# Entry
Amino acid sequence: MKMKRQLWLLLSICLLWICSSASGQAENDKILYYPSGKLEAERKYDKSCNCDKLTEYYESGKIRSTATYLRKAILGSQLDGAHITYFENGIIQLYTFYKAGALSGRIYANFPDGKLAYEQYFADSFKTGRWKFYNADGRLKEELVFDEKKTPWNSQDDDAVQMFYTEGKLIYTVKLIAGKKSNLTIIDKDLYNRVIAAARPDGKKLFQQECAMCHNANVDIVGPKMQGVAANRTREWLVKMITNGEALRKSGDKAATDLYAKWRNMEHPNFERLDSGDVDAIIAYLNELK
Ligand code: HEC
# Structure
């Protein structure tokens, strides 16, 4: 929400600026106010650098952000130098630095208490060096070590090694080639198993959230009881029934057609939004209902 508001603000300031340029008032300063009358943003033209200095404020009067836009010869502008966003408590939220419109040098973000959240490096318009991401407790969460001069500063297709930490220990690394994961290397097997198991979706919980209003383990309610279902059907059939039962029936599947008739022509809700990990977890739970 805040991001949206800032984007909107930036856009409207740029628009104001283009309009004023067109009407020959390129050097006019601009001021925006909150509905309460408090200062929200001001843009000041600085002749010495042919640039505009933009400052945004919280309604409390505290500075929200500062940035410098260098005017280009024809039309438009580009960020130049430091662009800093602050928490309302005055602590830097995000520090970025631009050179000729591209991120450059060290970029970092903090948690509201001032602890470092992450740091990233850019050089000659490429991502570079060893990026670090931290947990709020100060321990390392992830590192991204870039292949030099491979990933442009504004690209998401990273060429790098991604290193994942838990409890401050390196547990596995992944090689990224043009943003695609390859070469998973497990460093700490015990921790890896523990962390991956913890992240695995919980089939019983998902069943209770998504299915229990119509299905019970032992009795028919809105839909058939689930006990024994997994034993009677193939896994593939179950995936189709759960994710898109209607398509399964319309493909001419006999079991799905019979069920549909038996259950008063009720179309099965379509669970395409569940990802394959969720569906696997639900099916694993159905398998336990012997
Ligand atoms: C709105 C009610 C409703 C919800 C929610 C629902 N189902 Fe169903 N389900 C049915 C009905 C009714 C049928 C009978 C078949 C039909 O109507 O096409 C059925 C059939 C099934 C079958 C086939 C049973 C058999 O005998 O082979 C499976 C498996 C199934 N549902 C799993 C699920 C799972 C898993 C979820 C949650 C992700 C879910 N359903 C959510 C109503 C529902």
About this structure: The pocket of heme C is lined by residues 210-211, 213-215, 222-224, 229, 233, 238, 241-242, 245, 259-260, 263, 266, 268-269, 271, 282 (CB under 6 Å).
